Amino acid sequence: MATQRTPLPNLQPILLGIGFALLVGISVATVYLVDRAATDTRRLTQTLSVEDKLSNVLLSVRRAESSQRGYLFTDDPKYLAEFYEAEPEARQLVEELRTLTRDNPARQATLDEITRHLEAKFKEMGETVNLNQRGDSIGARRLVLSDQGRAITESLRKVIDTAIIDEARLAADRTAQSQQTNRLLLYVTLFGAALIVLIGAASVMLVQRTARQREAARAELESTNANLERIVEFRTADLTEANEEIQRFAYIVSHDLRSPLVNIMGFTSELEALRTDIFDQVARLSAELAALDAQASEAANTGEIERLGADFDEAIRFIKTSIGNMDRLINAVLRLSREGRREFRPERVDMDELLSSITATVTHRAVELGARIEVGALPSIETDRLAVEQIFANLVDNALKYGREGEPLHIEIMGRTSGTHAIYDVRANGRGIDPADHARVFELFRRSGPQDRPGEGIGLAHVRALVRRLGGTMGLSSTLGQGSTFTVTLPRRWTPGNRSKA
Amino acid sequence: MNSRTVEQPVQIVMIEDDEGHARLIEKNIRRAGVNNPVAPFNNGTDALRYLFGPDGSGLVNKGKPLLILLDLNLPDMTGVDILKKVKTNEHLKRVPVVVLTTTDDAVEIQRCYDLGCNVYITKPVNYENFANAIRQLGLFFSVIQVPSPD
Fold first, then answer.
1. Which of A31, A113, A495, B148 is the residue whose CA sits 20 to 30 A from A145?
2. Cβ contact (<8 Å) for B125 and A258?
3. What does A353-378 look like in DSSP terms, one character per residue?
4. pLDDT tens profile B5-64
5. How many CA within 13 A on the CB side of residue B35?
6. Whole domain around residue B17: which residue ranges?
7. Per CATH, which fold does A344-498 belong to?
8. Contact map slice: A 266-305 vs B, CB within 8 A
9. ipTM for the complex?
10. In sequence order, what are the residues at sequence separation of 6 or more whose Cβ sits closer than 8 angstroms to the Cβ of residue A46?
11. Which of A258, A316, A328 should one mutate to test binding to chain B, selecting the residue with the greatest count of B CBs within 10 A?
């Protein structure tokens, strides 16, 4: 799956855009074509209507003619009713035709001709009716027989027929055009539908491909995560092992260093014991020598021997002091490594009680120093009591140890909780720590400021190691000459797993 | 030592790899007035050969009044191995063993007593304490009763 991850751009928006544009185009075309089809239909209807009306004009003339003939033949005026109706009817029709064919100048000309013929025809028929009404039926009949009226009708019929044929041709044209428009509309619609289906299919394919890619990516991520967890496990195991190794190393080294120290110390003491014997011997020998050689000054010799003895004592003292220091350092390392290997036993620790017992043990010193110790309300935690006791005893001891000249010492211990952790501040207005030494004070055998107080530089290293083992963190904020605040953050519930990996 | 062992004085077998320590121990034992013979060994192999004899059965020392002073940190083996061998040997198991070492690990001390060690002493670095401890051990030697030969 991973190999299929080609750097193709995401086609989906492009495809969607194209589809949308096509849809708009098709819609516009359809609207246009539908409009055109409507126009075509209207014009076709118009043409058919023109055809119809033209026929009706001829029909009106025929009706007027037959009515005129009926009257002339029967001399009965009731036949005339239809004759009088026919003329306005015909004129009305012609007017209507004029409106309908306004856009066709040829047809207007035809209509002029029709009007002319109609006028002539109705004039001729009107004359025959008038003659008959005046009683001149012979004259009327003669007029009819003159065939003048029939010739006019014939011409009219010819004109109308020609126009009708013309209109029919026009109708045929328009029908063809309408059909073409409809066909075009169909094509456009079909084309649009096909395109939409195509784009839809392409979209579905793309979506599926994206989904597949996402699935593959997810699977890969999952396996990476699993790997990562394994790596973290390995690293943690490595770290734990390395830590144990260091503890073992510290123990072995410090332990093995003690052996030669026993010898150095032992033989130095032996040497010291020998000193008395040696110097007694020397004193005796020089006395004997003085007795033999009277010239030598005994007093000078005695002074010389005393000076040698003082040098000897000084050398021995330095050696012994150094051994004592080295022994203390080795013991400190030993103690640290042993502390590092001690199993923690978590229990409910009432911090108020713990801190008051710690401050109680230092009350005497505090009174001597004129120091005031204040303990606020502290949150209780579930952790190793001994470790926490050592942490705070060390911090309080440090606060008492490093006070400021001419400033009454004030030590405050405060606590609060934050989520799963409890935070404790040990604040004192002591001498403070140079910012450059903030990291250094937590290192083994490192100290800061004037070295005027006893100590090996172990306390804070020990405190930090304990805090870390308890799964917490150690913080320090301090201003030189103003005071320091040590902040201990501990989990409210210690479990063997939550040792901080820092 | 005391009157009962006049014919055959108790022999102290000192297994200590550090010559300086060995010397200091011997000096201080002597200062306590103990004059018993001391057989020093600076490695486990030689000590075992001496204790168990060439056949390794321990028969060679059967019935001899012995006292073993044992250091745990030896170059070729740990003192615990020697302790285990002595305390499981038919002929040597009643020999008093004094473990005198720099190791002050609680687990190690417990293990030694479990294996049958009779006294466990940690060597103090401070020489006064060290000398004191050895001298007191010497006094202890002078009053101790070792199993009498059959």
1. A113
2. yes
3. HHHHHHHHHTHHHHHHHT-EEEE---
4. 445 788 899 999 888 889 888 888 888 888 889 999 988 899 999 999 888 888 888 888
5. 6
6. 3-143
7. Heat Shock Protein 90 (3.30.565)
8. 266-270
9. 0.73
10. A100
11. A258
